[in-house]
């Protein structure tokens, strides 16, 4: 169980709760002063997304604006204390990481895949020509660093 907050100066966006399971393969390999473990995990991610997954690009022909292409993350669950229905997201994520244990220092580079639903909208000459939703696999990566007391 964990929590993650992006964009610390904006509290109304990008806050997530993670719940999941993981399995460690201990001492995958050792080095002179430490060891590396392999960690495989599966998580459910719930929270309020930020605007980083929303993109709109303009379509121009001969210097004139004729349409747009828009990609956006589809929100699919309610969040308490939000005025908008289905303001949050819930999606699965699988992760793979190497956990480095070096006396008092722990280092964990992480890579993973998220299954996220996106909407795609295309309009040309004030006419909607495409509107679809589909689940896409989105890569993720990160680094955890810890100090043992």
Q: Report, as a whole number of angstroms, the end-to-end distance.
A: 21 Å
Q: Roughly what fraction of the amino acids lie in strands? A: over 45%
Mean pLDDT: 88
State the low-pLDDT regions, or none.
none
Q: Number of helix segments?
A: 0
Task: Identify the overall geometry.
Answer: elongated
Order of helices and strands: EEEEEEEE
Percent of residues in helices: under 10%
Number of strands: 8
**Major pleated sheet:** 8 strands, antiparallel
Structural domain count: 1
Structural class: mainly beta
* Spatial extent as radius of gyration: 20 Å
Organism: Candidatus Yanofskybacteria bacterium RIFCSPHIGHO2_02_FULL_41_11
Protein name: Outer membrane protein beta-barrel domain-containing protein
Folded structure, characterized:
It comes from Candidatus Yanofskybacteria bacterium RIFCSPHIGHO2_02_FULL_41_11. This is Outer membrane protein beta-barrel domain-containing protein. The chain has 149 residues and is mainly β. The protein has one domain (2-147). It contains no helices and eight strands. Strands 1, 2, 3, 4, 5, 6, 7 and 8 form an eight-stranded antiparallel sheet that branches. Strand 4 (55-61) and strand 5 form a beta hairpin.
């Amino acid at each position: 169980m964990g929590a993650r907050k992006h964009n610390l100066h904006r509290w109304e966006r990008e806050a997530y709760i993670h719940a999941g399971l993981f399995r460690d393969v201990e001492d995958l390999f050792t080095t002179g002063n430490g060891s590396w473990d392999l960690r495989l995990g599966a998580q459910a991610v719930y929270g309020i997304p930020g605007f980083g997954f929303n993109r709109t690009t303009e379509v121009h022909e001969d210097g004139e604006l004729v349409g747009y292409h828009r990609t956006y993350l589809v929100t699919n669950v309610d969040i308490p204390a939000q005025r908008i229905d289905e303001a949050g997201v819930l999606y699965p994520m699988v992760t793979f990481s190497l956990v480095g244990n070096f006396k008092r220092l722990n280092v964990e580079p992480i890579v993973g895949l998220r299954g996220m639903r996106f909407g795609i909208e295309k309009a040309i000459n004030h006419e909607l020509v495409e509107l679809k939703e589909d689940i896409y696999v989105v890569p993720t990566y990160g680094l955890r660093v810890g100090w043992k007391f």
